Amino acid sequence: MWEKLEEKFVKINNGSNRLRTIIANKNSSKTPLVMLHGMGSGIGLWALNLETISGSHPVYAFDILGFGRSSRPKFSHDPLVAEAEFVEAIEDWRKEVGLDKFVLFGHSFGGYLASSYAMRHPDR
User: Smaller CB count within 10 Å for the chain: N or C?
Assistant: First the structure.
């Protein structure tokens, strides 16, 4: 049964940035799914899929730092440092939302960040 989405802004980086987040089926006991959109996109990418996907699992999607309605900080010009900044934004978000283990998947740039996150935080 489709329920209303929860929307909130999750503060990260000690409150200096925020990530727009939507949550569906939060009370399910199954492993949560976390979705990362692609380059130049936002959580609206998943709009037509949320009802079906959240039918059996809790689903979280957020606008990646610098995209959509999330904060727009200045990133490093060093590509390795910038990648780490994106990955740590995901980790800060995870801590603030209170997730332990989850399935992280993404589209395009989001897939790249999901892979980078998994390599740095394999225990999640």
Answer: N
